[in-house]
Model the fold of this input.
Amino acid sequence: MTARGQTKQGQDYGRHPAKVTSDRLLTACQQWRDKLSDDEQEALLSAHLILERIAEEAAEPRELLPCGTVAAYQRHKRRGETPCEACKQAHAADLREWRQGRQALR
Ligand SMILES: [Zn+2]
Done:
């Protein structure tokens, strides 16, 4: 179980619900990949990435993930920046691992 609760200031901590859903979606996607068409898998991957973005945008600033993560890669893109090398590698690794049907390492 992921730790959940509140800080002394009353702020929630723990994974954002969108992040939890995103992770579950990715897991289900991998378990069902043999039964899904390429288009369906792409659609699920899109939903996964959108939920990651929602979780990132809803997160408190202190929860922003550092460079070298998929969330940071998407943050660069949203800001119109060229992703740094660490983020580009994280993004490429995420796609590669997803296509190989393994849980992406984060
Ligand atoms: Zn970066």
About this structure: Residues 67, 72, 76, 83-84, 86-87 surround zinc ion (CB under 6 Å).
